[in-house]
Specification:
Blueprint (H helix, E strand, L loop, with lengths): L2 H32 L5 H28 L4 H21 L5 H29 L3 H26 L5 H16 L2 H7 L19 H20 L13 H15 L9 H21 L6 H25 L3 H26 L7 H21 L2 H4 L10
């Protein structure tokens, strides 16, 4: 199979897979609260338990595939079927009670991890040069943004719940299934090491810590826009805010950037987090649509660069499982950080919001400091084929 064709299939499959995830994140809570009148605290508890289960499953599946990489295609195909079947149940079982809803959510999240980790690990098989790794990361960014945009548009319309959920499930399964023939054509391999070396798929702790801190800070800031002090929202509803953020994330894939080595990639990621800190500071004064696009751009660029350098940092499924787990834990921590900052109030006070944006800026600066190449000890290793 030619690489260009494989790259296109990988990115399309990522869109289908991401459609299930983003729809679950954006639609499930909305439908449970607005249609089935579930208490927001209970809906949030279901979401957090499901996210925790998915994070643990990411780690477990990554460890399993590191030992048995030949199981990747079968695991991804079967898990995607279960995830698609379980997705509608995460909403439609609400009348049966909290327990049924929780079980459906945990099943969906664990099954999603079963197809997500093998698909992510394909990056190391397909992204074997700097250009290829970055092209794949661009494709992932666009696929995720398009899936989020579709979910945001659907959330803003009054559509019948059952047909909507099954349509998303069917579409996600049909498109996402394209990953299975890729896993057959480009089988994963177990990590190897030379005498005296560590396994190559263990992520550098500083990179992992910086990524988590950055995700927590920027995600919390994006969620905070929905809880602005009185008089600061300028009539923007949640759908409009989400749309501007998605447009910014999509635009990040179009920036004229190149990464030729791991050292350079880490340095660019550090600069991106430093710039994100400046964006956070500016949010203390303005939340115009242009600023929302800029925040989306910051989130997209940091995610884009992180995934672009992962093929060299993580040579096997274990590393991708750990990174996916860390990302999901960071998303949960972002919600906790926002909730802790709000306290029992639905919106920020003016002083509290400024303090929150300042804290986000400091966190981004700290993430950038962790990624300074001299501190990371990252070798000046090229992403080109050895």
């Amino acid at each position: 199979m030619r690489w260009r064709r494989a790259c296109a299939i990988y990115c399309v499959a990522h869109f289908g897979k991401s459609l299930l995830w983003t729809a679950s994140d954006l639609l499930t809570l909305y439908l449970l609260v607005s249609i089935y009148a579930l208490a927001p605290t209970m809906a949030g508890a279901v979401f957090m338990v499901g996210l925790t289960a998915s994070a643990l499953a990411d780690l477990g599946i990554g460890l399993w595939l590191a030992r048995r990489p030949d199981h990747a295609a079968m695991l991804a195909g079967g898990a995607l079927v279960i995830a698609a079947l379980a997705f509608p149940a995460t909403v439609l079982l609400a009348p049966l009670g909290f327990g049924a809803l929780l079980v459906a959510t945990v099943v969906f999240r664990i099954a999603y991890a079963g197809c997500d980790v093998p698909h992510n690990a394909l990056l190391s098989r397909l992204g074997d040069t700097a250009g290829r790794a970055f092209a794949l990361s661009r494709g992932r960014t666009i696929g995720t943004a398009l899936a989020s945009l579709v979910a945001a548009i659907v959330a803003g319309r009054q559509l019948a719940t059952t047909p909507l959920l099954w349509s998303i499930a069917g579409g996600g399964w049909l498109i996402g299934s394209l990953m299975v023939p890729l896993l057959v054509a480009f089988p994963l391999s177990a990590p190897t090491r030379q005498s005296g070396e560590r396994w190559r798929d263990r992520l550098p702790p500083r990179f992992l810590a910086a990524s988590m801190i950055g995700i927590v800070a920027l995600t919390a800031l994006a969620k905070a826009v929905l809880h602005l002090p009185l008089g600061r929202a300028d009539g923007q509803d949640g759908t409009a805010v989400l749309t501007w953020l998605v447009l910014g994330r999509t635009a990040s894939a179009l920036l004229p950037m190149r990464i030729g080595s791991l050292h350079q990639g880490v340095a660019v990621l550090a600069l991106a987090y430093a710039a994100s800190g400046a964006v956070a500071i500016s949010y203390g004064w303005s939340v115009e649509p242009a600023m929302l696009v800029l925040l989306g751009l910051a989130m997209g660029v940091t995610n884009l660069i992180g995934w672009a350098i992962l093929p060299l940092l993580a040579a096997g499924p274990r590393g991708y499982g750990v990174y996916a787990m860390a990302s999901k834990v960071a998303l949960g921590l972002a919600g906790l950080a926002l909730g802790g900052s709000l306290g029992r109030m639905p919106t920020f006070t003016a002083q509290g919001y400024f303090a929150f944006t300042l804290a986000v800026a400091i966190a981004c600066a700290f993430a950038a400091g962790l990624l300074i190449p001299r501190l990371t000890g990252t070798p000046r290793q090229s992403l080109s084929r050895q």
